[in-house]
Design goal:
Length: 159
């Protein structure tokens, strides 16, 4: 069986694959962003663990353990997000392959390309949801008591 591909068909196949490639670029950028956040979560967890181990004060230990629970939860969510983004990249890669093969060999049925693209977009949206969830969790642990104490001790001067 010989496979003959004419240049016009190959050129059109490449043009079809360009749109999914832009999504792949977004996926790569998101993986970088989430991986950076995961690295910061891990670094912070190491600092908090050392703080808890070295402290004798019950309040410091309790606060540290609470923060470690949040950090573990955030880390798991970031890992899920990275997994979804990786799956998205794989599905978009399959979409490109299906589109190229369909054009190169004249396959009329592009159902696999449509399904893989839609699944890729859905996994990308789920990963964005995880990213948002992780960032919301990051702000839940913030404690502004020190700021409030400072503001009540030093009220702003009235003009």
């Amino acid at each position: 069986m010989s496979v003959v591909i004419d240049m016009a068909t190959a050129t059109h196949s490449v043009q079809l694959a360009v749109a999914p490639v832009f999504l792949l670029t977004a996926v790569a950028g998101m993986i970088g962003a989430v991986a950076g956040r995961l690295a910061r979560i891990i670094d912070r967890a190491r600092v908090v663990e050392d703080m808890v181990r070295g402290s004798q004060e019950a309040q410091t230990i309790e606060r540290g353990l609470t923060e470690l629970l949040y950090l573990r939860r955030r880390g798991r969510i970031a890992n899920v997000s990275i997994g979804l983004l990786t799956l998205c990249g794989f599905l978009i890669g399959l979409t490109i392959v299906f589109l190229f093969m369909g054009q190169a060999w004249g396959v009329e049925e592009q159902l696999f390309a449509v399904i893989s693209f839609l699944l890729g977009v859905l996994t990308f949206l789920a990963a964005l949801g995880c990213f948002l969830w992780e960032t919301v969790l990051a702000t839940q642990l913030l404690n502004f008591h020190v700021l409030e104490m400072h503001c009540s001790a030093h009220p702003p001067a009235k003009s």
